[in-house]
Amino acid sequence: MTGDPLFDYPLRRGERLDPPPVLGELRADRPVCPVRLWDGSEAWLVTRHADVRAVLADPRVSADPRSPGYPFLSAGRAAAPDGHGSFNHLDPPEHGRFRRMLSGEFTVERIARLRPVVQRTVDRAIDAMVSAGNRAELVRALALPVPSFVICELLGVPYADHEFFETRTAARMDLTRAPELVRAANAEIMGYLEQLVAEKRRRPGDDLISRLITQHGDSGEASPGEIVDMVRLLLVNGYETTANMIALGVLVLLRNPDEAAVLRDDPDPEAVERLVEELLRHQTIVHIAPTRAVLAELTVGGTVLRPGDGVITSLSSANRDATVFDRPDALDCGRDARRHLSFGHGVHHCLGHTLARLELHAVFGTLFRRLPALRLAVPYEEVRFKEDAGLYGVHRLDVTW
Ligand code: HEM
Questions:
Q1: Domain ranges, ordered by start, for the chain
Q2: Has keyword Cytoplasm (predicted)?
Q3: Atom of ligand 1 nearest to the CA of 102
Q4: Which residue lies with its CA nearest to atom 21 of ligand 1?
Q5: Atom 26 of ligand 1: nearest residue by CA position
Q6: Which of 21, 120, 328, 361 has its CA 20 to 30 A from that of 34?
Q7: Cα–Cα distances in Å, from 299 out to 96, 229, 296?
C-alpha cells in the first residue's frame, strides 16, 4: 500500500442513525482512502457508489481470507474468519459450485411459498405483544423471533434450539470479543450442525438440509463437511441480518413519524415495498464491509490498487452517495431506492435477499397498522446501538403503544 492512513477503521459515528459524517467528505475528496486497522495494517476504503459496485464485480479482487493482504476488521475475525470455509469466502469458479446447489431454493417462486408462514409468524408475534400489555422489548418480541423462526422452518433446524445458536452468532459478530471466544462460538455451532446433518441423513424430512443431502450429498457432489458449511452460512446469515434491519427500520420510522404514516391504514403493497427499499438503503446494516483482497492490479476512482492490498467497500457510504440518491441523508419512503447496495453486488450478491424482503414486507406491512400509536418507551438517547458489531443494529428497543 502507498499513502499514509488517514483514519482508524472502523470509523466512529456521530448521529447514531447515520453513517460517520467523514464518509461524505471522503466521497467528495478522497474516494479511495488508506485507513489503519486494529493490528496496524492498512487497507483502502472505497466510498463512492460506482466504485463500490466496480470493486465488488471485479474478478481481480478476492473474497477469500487466505488471499494475501485480506483485511480483517478485528482480532476475532482474524482468528476465526467469518464463515471460514464457506462459499461466501470462496472465489469463482469454486464459489459457483456451491451457489448453484442452493440457488433453486431461493428463487422468487420458492420463497413466495413461505409467505403464509412468514405472515403467520408476524401476526403471532404481534398478538403475543398485545396480549401481554402495551409495552414490549421489540428485538426479543418481534425482530429476532420472526426471521429466526422462518429460517429454522426453511432449513429444518429445531426452533427450540434458538437460544443456543442466537447467543453463539452474536458472539461471532462482536468485534470486541476475544479470538478464543469467537473460535469457541464457531466450534459450538459447527458441532451442533454436524449432529443435525447426520440426523437428517438418517431420517430426511421436507426441508432444505434434507434436500441438500439427498440431491447433492448422496451423489458425492458435496462432502458432509461442505453441507455443514453451507447450512452454517445460511443459518447465521439467515436471521441476524433481517432481525437488525427490522429493529433499526422501526426505530428510524419512530424518529420520522410522517414517513410511517403510509403504513398506518391499510397500506398499499407497492408503498410498503418502496418503504422497505428505502429503509434498507438508509439503515445499511452491513455497515463496515464487505472486505476484499486485490489479486491483480486495478485502478479504482483514479487510485492504483496492487496485488496484496486490502480493500473495504463501504456499502453505508455508497447508499448515501448524492450522485445516485437525491438528498441522500433524508429518509424518504416515497423515493425509488432500488439502486441501493445493501445486499452487495457481483457474484456474492446476497443469496437470501428475496427471503429478507418477504419478511420485511410482512413486518412493515403489519406492525404500524396493528399498533398505529407505536412509540419509544424510553428516551432515544438511552437506546444502545451495536457500534462494535459487524452488523449494525440496536441491542434492545423498548416500545409502547
Ligand atoms: C451475502 C446483506 C439477509 C444469505 C450478503 C452480502 C450482503 C448481504 C451485503 C454480500 C457480502 C459480500 O459481498 O461479501 C444482507 C442483508 C440482509 C440479508 C442486508 C437482510 C436485511 C440474508 C438472508 C439470508 C442471507 C435472510 C439467508 C437465507 C446470504 C448468503 C450470502 C449473503 C448465503 C453469501 C452469498 C455468496 O457469497 O454468494 N448478504 N443479507 N442473507 N447473504 Fe445476505
A1: 7-400
A2: no
A3: 33
A4: 242
A5: 238
A6: 328
A7: 26, 34, 10
C-alpha cell at 82: 467469518
Is the pLDDT at 82 greater than 70? The verdict is no
| Distance from C-alpha of 112 to C-alpha of 339, rounded to nearest angstrom | 23
Radius of gyration for the chain, computed over Cα atoms and rounded to the nearest angstrom: 21
Q: How confident is the model at residue 14 (pLDDT cuts 50, 70, 90)?
A: confident
Distance 237 CA to ligand 1 centre (A): 6
Q: Once rounded to an integer, what is the mean pLDDT over residues 48-71?
A: 97
| Model confidence at 77: pLDDT above 90 | no
Residue range 99-146, pLDDT digits in tens: 999 999 999 999 999 999 999 999 999 999 999 999 999 999 999 999
CA of 241 to the centre of ligand 1 (A): 8
Cβ(383)–Cβ(394) under 8 Å? yes
Q: Are strands 32-36 and 42-46 parallel, antiparallel or unpaired?
A: antiparallel
Fold of 7-400: Cytochrome p450 (1.10.630)
Q: Which residue in this structure is represented by grid cell 461524505?
A: 24
Q: Average the pLDDT over 38-62 and give the result.
A: 97
Predicted confidence at residue 178, as pLDDT, reads 76
* pLDDT for residue 320 is more than 70: yes
Residue 167: pLDDT over 90: no
